[in-house]
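Lab notebook: predicted structure, single chain.

Context: the supervisor wants predicted structures on file for every construct in the current expression panel, including those that have not yet been purified. This is the next one on the list. No modifications to the sequence; it matches the entry in the shared construct table.
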Amino acid sequence: MIKRFHPSAAVLAAGYSSRMGTLKPLLPIGDHCALSHVLRTLKSAGINDTAVVTGYLREKLRPVITSEGATDVFNPDFDKGMLSSVKAGLNHFLHTGGVSGILLSPADCPLVLACTIRSILFEASENPDRFIVPCYKGKKGHPLWIPLSKFHEILSYDGSMGLKGITQKYDDEMIRLETQDEGTVLDMDTPEAYQKLLAYACRGANVGDFARLAKNRRFVLIRHGKTEQHKEKIFLGQYDPPLSGEGIVQANEAAFLLKSLSVKTDTIYSSDMKRAQTTAELIGKALDIPRICALPGLREMSLGAWDGKYISEIIKNYPEEYEKRGKNLLTYKFDNESENFYDLQYRVLDCVSEILQTDSRCDIVIVSHSGVIRALYGTLSGHDVEWGLSNLSPKHASITVFKEPFS
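Prediction complete. Output recorded below exactly as produced.
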């Protein structure tokens, strides 16, 4: 007998929305609120059984849940974090029975396309015991498919690492479904992110426009000078030591070399980390470029709890995780605060896209970090971050110039 496939969905809407400052599920996007968008898309994709996990200000969400034909599942432990809401959703569907698995969607990720969800469901029907996550340009997004076979393991987990404590265990067999849907990686955690999401919804202004925005520009990419050294090698990441004396000399030498490029701009864009910003300031002073625009989007890749730690310490305390990182350098993430190279690429291209939309000058000068420059290098060369990692290793205060991006 052929086993039938019965997918359901759980939408997480129980949190405080503390970083946003207002209840995210009810924020307007066009004519409907974010939660309505999520529920309507799920229904359009063929999901007829959706539970909305509520908690904080539950009563304000009920009218939307009722009008969209979903089920309100209350999580009394919502203040204990997201995993408690995941468990509330899984318990609900275990008790109702008959499901093959669920799509887990946050209420603040409202622009995922129905065709993307249908693609996930097709993969799930063919691979009934595997986690499935949609990706955009390699960056993992939402919603996550959780197969029925993993429900009990998640429910029995103590939660010390959140849901990632389970999904990371199955990372090698997780299906990463590459899509053209940027909505999978757009959320509304902050007011700034909400404005970006609205721009995407209204104008389609997204990272996919990067090639058009970069046309006829000259990119001058400069790595920061050398930093003060430690007694042994560390994972630098977003740890923020100052430039060393040697690094200051390197920055001034880079400024001398830049003079021969006849750069025409009044702005240097820089990472807001000290080592990059100081390099940019020294170059700006030498070239009489008055404005330094320091941007968090140009920071080095975050390694989470490993930032600034001695590599020997990481190897000693996390030998298995260190080995995993070596085998999966592009996709590995140690914790929820860390990034992988696809996350870095998306963040950097998003930041540089904003620069290109507001700066019409031909020359774009950026002072940043090795990982950032390699991600940009891969993209500007018409490839991706993996290609950039393999083909460029910028030295301190080195200069990389692109005259004809994507050619």
